[in-house]
Amino acid sequence: MTAELMQQGLNWLTLGCIYALIAVGFSLLFGVLKVIHFSHGDVSLVAPFVALAALQGLSASASGLSAIGLLIACFIAVVATGILGVVLDWLVIRRFRDAPAMMALVATVALGIALRESVGHLFPNGHNPQPFPRLIEADFNPTEGFTLPAFNLLVIGSSIVVVALLFLLLRHTPLGVRIRAVSQDREAARLMAISPSSVFRATFFITSAVGGLGGLFYASYAGVTRFDFGIQAGLIGFSAAVVGGLGSMPGAIIGSLLIAGLDTVVQATLPDGASYRLVFAFLLVILVLVFRPAGLFGSVAVEKV
């Protein structure tokens, strides 16, 4: 029983870390731009397709590439996803920064659909599921009945490091000071010679790259990637950010762990629990919005009229 609980706890932490890498992007973008970037999940799940294309290109140009080739392909995918976020902001999202929130919401939903369909058509057999390799294959057996995959350790360790670096960047670097200044008062930041446009570009690159890492982990955890995985990943990431409180990075992490915990418990305890896990996850979102509309760590905004 103890080994089974440890195994489920490991699954919970792994899923929670994957969700958190996507959820922090929603919170950070909302905190800086005050815009819900609904296509963020689709941007994040472009990364596995870029990694597969890069891996095929590396394999064709050099023999003997396995683990090193996969590592290089993943690095290329993370950087390319960050650049994609900047390009999409420049092409579409920046035009809605001062528009009503509903216009930006509809625009980013449409952008996500366009992105998914583009991946499905441009990638060979892109509308079919594509096998995605496990990023690391080794397993450990510290106790009888308990398997500790190195992949899970990679996901948990990488997520902790990335989130810690994000907090350090926001709190202790000049870029972080500029990001926080723009998020608090865009016009005052402009008067202090801070360019909001450059801050937006940097924010989109960071959040999209971190989301791309989450997308790679998501595909590797599932063992497959699909052109429409961004819908589910985006909804879960957004829901986690809403549960924690949009604009709060700690809230996004706590929300991700809560949703992943509920997901794991439902799959482990209910018959055919995998079919109902999202039902319970979104019921949690509804309950939080009913009893605490700003989220667990969010603050209610008061506007004077």
Automatic annotation (TrEMBL):
InterPro entries: ABC_transp_permease, BCAA_transport_permease. It is found in: Cell membrane. It is a multi-pass membrane protein. It comes from Dongia soli. Belongs to the binding-protein-dependent transport system permease family. LivHM subfamily. Keywords: Amino-acid transport, Cell membrane, Membrane, Transmembrane, Transmembrane helix, Transport. The lineage of its organism: Bacteria, Pseudomonadati, Pseudomonadota, Alphaproteobacteria, Rhodospirillales. Coiled coil: none annotated. This is Branched-chain amino acid ABC transporter permease. The chain crosses the membrane at residues 12-33, 68-92, 99-115, 150-170, 199-221, 233-266, 278-302. PANTHER family: AMINO ACID ABC TRANSPORTER PERMEASE PROTEIN (PTHR11795:SF445), BRANCHED-CHAIN AMINO ACID TRANSPORT SYSTEM PERMEASE PROTEIN LIVH (PTHR11795). Its main location: membrane.
